[in-house]
């Protein structure tokens, strides 16, 4: 798809690392599927993937861990 930020680039399927932080908990999620703009590097994560990320982050937050490293399976 065409990038909504720079309006110049085209996005390509890729894998990114997402870092989520809340209070004292940091969740690092690797291998997250995303569309990445080849021009400006803007990353687009689907709402389904985003929802899964937030669910994982909330689980880590509930356990009160300082740092959680996850690898996205899909
Ligand atoms: Zn762009």
Give the secondary structure arrangement, pairings included.
Layout: E1 11-22, E2 25-37, E3 43-44, H1 47-63, E4 67-71
Parallel strand pairs: 2-4
Antiparallel strand pairs: 1-2, 2-3
The structure holds zinc ion (ZN).
Write up what this structure looks like.
There is one protein chain. The protein is an alpha+beta fold and 74 residues long. It has one domain (11-71): Ubiquitin-like (UB roll), CATH 3.10.20. Helices cover 23% and strands 43% of the residues. Strands 1, 2, 3 and 4 form a four-stranded mixed β-sheet that branches. The chain starts with 10 loop residues before the first strand and ends with a strand. 11% of the residues are buried. It binds zinc ion. Zinc ion binds at residues 3, 5-6, 9, 37, 39-40, 42.
């Amino acid at each position: 798809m065409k990038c909504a930020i720079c309006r110049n680039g085209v996005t390509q399927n890729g894998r990114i690392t997402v870092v989520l932080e809340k209070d004292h908990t940091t969740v690092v999620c690797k291998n997250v599927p995303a569309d990445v703009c080849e021009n400006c590097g803007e990353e687009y994560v689907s709402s389904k993937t985003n929802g899964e990320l937030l669910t994982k982050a909330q689980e880590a937050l509930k356990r009160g861990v300082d740092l959680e490293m996850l690898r996205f399976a899909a």
